[in-house]
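Hey,

Quick one before I head out. I ran the complex with LLP overnight. Inputs first:
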Amino acid sequence: MLLTSDTYSYRDGALHCEDVALDEIARRVGTPCYVYSSRAVLSRFRAYDAALEGMPHLISYAVKANSNLSLLRLLAGAGSGFDIVSGGELYRVVQAGGDPSRVVFSGVGKTPQEIEYGLKSGIHAFHCESEGEVALIASLAARLGKQARVALRVNPDVDAGTHPYISTGLREHKFGIDMAEAEAIYKKASESQHLAMEGVSCHIGSQILDMDALLEALDRLLELAARLRKAGLPIRHLDLGGGLGIPYKPSDQAPNIAEFAARVRQRMAGAGLLLILEPGRSIVGDAGVLLTRVLYRKTGASREFIIVDAAMNDLLRPSLYQSHHEILALREAPRGTVRADVVGPVCESGDFLALDREMPNALPGDLLAVWTAGAYGFVLSSNYNSRPRPPEVLVEGGSWRIVRARETYEDLVRGEQP
Ligand code: LLP
């Protein structure tokens, strides 16, 4: 089972996050409810940071994975930068006390307002995905009397070998600029005094379990940086994006962060470039769980259902990507296991957390934890079926606090007119 002694463990039969029993949180806060371990988040961040110590680097945590202000503050305090994809994410970083000069702005469709916000905030760099975007940044920077630091996000045409919805590095994808076209765009853009064409970047996909794909992308980026420098461009940073996978199933062989970072470091040695990484999932994924209570048991014509109070609006990943999340009992299973579907109250057949899975034999009233839900969990939640979104709790050692309140019915209709 995916338990790590420093974060989640059973003590006296009760599942704990750090030194807090999860059923205490569930009883006090109610369910469904997200819980995050601050220790896990910091230890993953430090694993990257320590492996790169001594070489110029910036870990820009990908805010989209989990944008709760308390996690952003925690990471900012540890020295993290941030990878953002919207003005809203920049606003969150600033609210959390993050340093805009450590922010890179990715994304295929930045609006003029978002670009202006980034320019005025003094972010580290824009990662541009089209010639049109480069031109727009140049004209907005000119209007504001500024010079924008820019990297092109190129498409290294490497197969990340991950789920098609979260694979981004092939030529057929909407992301990035074709390697073959990039050099001409760099040269043209560098003629503008309002652009500093300083970086090369890529992001080939997410939940990548084979780190060789990432290293291959790195090699292609290093070659591009060398070619651009030879042509006289002052390339200063190389951003390899995010993407390192984590184990969702006990059988998943996920890459080790420190080993990955060490191999990146080896290849970068002597290149004279600032290395930027944009990890999201590998920092927060296994730090979080979603707590849920069993409402009913039901025996269908051909299968057994465990009906719980969390649904696809709370955690979309199983429905959207057929992703696997282990499900654990908060009290060590006294009743053995059962083969069942775990489903929520939403009116969709696609509303499930697990299908046809050997499960703790949980009965109505029992509490369960949906595992590895820290990344792309709450951020993908919605109010579908007019369900208030769940609260978020941060654990630090033996203490815990609510870092986002459960939404109310009033929250559901805020801004609407009858
Ligand atoms: N940088 C860029 C430009 C990205 O697009 C992403 C993720 C990241 C960094 C962070 O990647 P990570 O280290 O988390 O793999 N909702 C999907 C994942 C979508 C990832 C989108 N981009 C899921 O739940 O699996």
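The two ends are 50 Å apart (CA to CA).

Talk tomorrow,
K.
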